[in-house]
Amino acid sequence: MTSVQVDKQHDGDEAAGTAPEEGYQRGLGNRQIQMIAIGGAIGTGLFLGAGKAISMAGPSIILAYAIVGLVIFFIMRALGELLMYRPVSGSFSEYGREFLGPFIGFVTGWTYWLFWVVTGITEVTAAATYVQYWNKGIPQWAAALVFTCALFGINLISVKIFGELEFWFSMVKVTAIIGMILIGLGVITLGFSDAGDTASFTNLWSHGGFFPKGIGGTLMTLQIVMFAFLAVELVGVTAGEATNPKKVLPKAINTVPWRIGLFYIGALIIILSVVSWTVFKPGVSPFVAAFQQIGLPAGAGIVNFVVLTAALSSANSGMYSTGRMLRDLALNGQGPKFFTKLSKNGLPTWGTGVSVAMMLFGVYINYQWPGEAFNYVVSFATISGMWAWIVILASQLRYRAKANRGELPQSEFKAPGSPYTSVFALAFIAMVIVMMGVDKDARISLYAAPVWALILGVGYLCIKRRDAANGLTAGTAPQDASTKNTNG
Prior knowledge:
Layout: H1 3-16, H2 30-41, H3 44-47, H4 49-57, H5 61-85, H6 92-100, H7 102-131, H8 140-155, H9 159-190, H10 214-219, H11 222-229, H12 245-254, H13 256-274, H14 286-294, H15 298-331, E1 341-342, H16 349-368, H17 373-378, H18 381-404, H19 420-438, H20 443-469, E2 486-487
Helix pairs in contact: 2-9, 2-12, 5-11, 5-12, 5-13, 5-18, 5-19, 6-7, 6-18, 7-8, 7-15, 7-16, 7-18, 7-20, 8-15, 8-16, 9-13, 9-15, 14-15, 15-16, 18-19, 19-20
């Protein structure tokens, strides 16, 4: 949007007391939004990735999740402040464009789109792998193709169906974690099962102490922990389709602390009390290891089903968000115009369709290199996801400064402790990026980032030349483009 468009749109929203309309149907209610927020914070990073983190840091991984969880809360409250100022589906891409300039909005929109395309490929790949737990005769590429097509079909029906599917995906994850916590508490307090004699809270410090690998080992897990929380910001993309964004979104954001406390910290405390941290290995779900130690062989199958739903949930969210991001870019003159088209159900089918076509490339990777597909595409996800968080925090700082000067209205949902909390979160993300550079396994993400930045720089220069020829400011659309509802 141009600054004129933002001012005009905001004036109209103030008068109406509602969020700006973008042509979407507001089909996501409180129940769906709450579960999308929960689902965004619980993914394969917890069910699988925690195994590697535990082996690297021991029980101190609990502290790492707590600290990162606090940073995530600061990020989400910064996003909440912006959402109550102007709730739009473009979310942080829109805010980057308004407060940091058209180029940042361009970079953010395309980077977040690529993040979800890459994540969608990794999650569909992972889901296809999980199916082989029950039937190894199913080719990995075939399962990936079926999952991709099925989720695409769901995303073509209505946003309400998407929300309902995410609700049930999240319910599976929540039920599994709560079940694990209750069973673990029973083992620790009542002493039943094969693990009853050794299960104890003393396992948190009895095997080499709380920091068995030292502070350095804990620090090296931070990028793994940050990856586990990627997608928690997805709730911001739903703003344009929430039934009552100014009521629903703050509720969802304010649940972040207890979600992290229960589903991450609570679950890890119980698991590491039931089973010594020395048992866990990279690539093995800590939930599976805990169930096996307890003596519940069916637990492995249950956890495999839960992880399968977590992967499909993430892929489903990816399809949802990519279409909205491409449409936001197109509405602002930073993407092909045909992405602005909506279906009769108010869905950005062109953007979603092109994104799914890119994800289908991941099916080809599965076909060619089934054993290496996951590692080929996962390296870029962390750094591109954290870019969205950086833009959220920087935009909130600029917005708060303008609001304090009286240039913009104050948000109804201020981030507590800002600007200090936002500055702290930015510094923490910078430290994690440095740690990624130290870790040889994570360093490839930093190698990929400059290549992507060069591609975006060339693309933006092309847009500047096109807009200069048409007498427009770089990366902007005609004044009515941002609110135009184009059906097709």
